[in-house]
Amino acid sequence: MAFASFDNKRGNAPVAEINMVPLIDVMLVLLVIFIVTAPLLTHAVKLDLPKVSSQTNEVKPDKIEFAIDAQGQRYWNGEVVTREEAQQRFLAEGKKPVQPEIHLRADQDAAYKTVAQTLADASKAGLSKVGFVSEPER
After folding, report:
1. pTM above threshold 0.70
2. What 3 state SS string does the chain have?
3. What is the pLDDT of residues 9-22, one digit of tens each?
4. pLDDT per position as a tens digit, 23-63
């Protein structure tokens, strides 16, 4: 390839060869960056950690099945309770170190007021793990 030519016939023709010098420069710069950063990525501190044979103490929270039927009757794990009794039980459960999970089942014909009162009572007692149980559509 001739860069400087006094030939007028070929002077205006486009260059059809790829200039490899910039590509090689970029490749060498990337190689240098890789060589510099590779040791930094593998830097680790060698530690001899103590070995223990104890098992983890996982305390699983209790589960409370709370149900409300279509007439507004409340059930605590299948036992009929009034709203006041439910409030007292919520307060007792809220004072425990591990809060129980409350699974709330409400009849679809139950008044929303009853469900809202139950949620408010649980919230006032400090219980925050409340789940709604429903049946999937078929």
Report:
1. no
2. CCCCCCCCCCCCCCCCCCCCHHHHHHHHHHHHHHHHHHHHHCCCCCCCCCCCCCCCCCCCCCEEEEEECCCCCEEECCEEECHHHHHHHHHHHHCCCCCCEEEEEECCCCCHHHHHHHHHHHHHCCCCCEEEECCCCC
3. 656 667 778 888 88
4. 899 999 999 999 988 877 776 677 677 777 667 667 676 88
